Amino acid sequence: MAAVDDASILGSRILIVDDEPANLELLETVLQGEGFSQLLCTTHSERVPALVEAFRPDLVLLDLWMPAPSGFDLLAALADAPPPDRLMPVIVLTADATRAVRHRALGLGARDFLTKPLDALEVILRCWNQLETVHLAARLRRLEAGLEPCPART
User: Fold this and answer.
1) Three-class secondary structure assignment of 94-112
2) Dihedral sign (CA 108, 60, 25, 49)
3) CB of 61 within 8 A of CB of 27?
């Protein structure tokens, strides 16, 4: 039995933030083509804190270089106010793959990077990997709380 079933992964909520509508359209098309159905896209970075609270994404895809607030500002804000009792990884979207940018984003809490121009298969695989971790962490919390029976050992 798989640790996390495909339907759970595909039912994940993904928030996509990029100031370029073409990038949002590409990511939405790629993820919908894979079967993800709960996608929320925005070009308005200032709306991200409210969207995170209302939509409760399992994963955020976040462009770094946007008008204020930038992706760096949002990473810092998300790190200061993490969602209670759940994991919400952020995958950074950037054409700037310099060492300084990678270090800064990772230091602010990014969990992974997607480099522009985006590769469709890489987008899917990186999202899938992060979402599997999110679902495993949620399952562990349910097990620890006694809300889910512990699997029998063989």
Assistant:
1) ECCCCHHHHHHHHHCCCCE
2) negative
3) yes
41 touches 28 (CB < 8 A): yes
How deeply is 100 buried, as exposed, middle or buried, from its count of CB atoms within 10 A (0-12, 13-18, 19+)? exposed
pTM of this prediction exceeds 0.85:
yes
Q: Quick: pLDDT tens for 39-74.
A: 999 999 999 999 999 999 999 999 999 999 999 999
The domains located in the chain, with CATH, are 6-144 (3.40.50.2300)
Per-residue pLDDT tens for 88-130?
Answer: 999 999 999 899 999 999 999 999 999 999 999 999 999 999 9
Strand order in the sheet with 90-94: 38-42, 13-17, 59-63, 90-94, 112-115
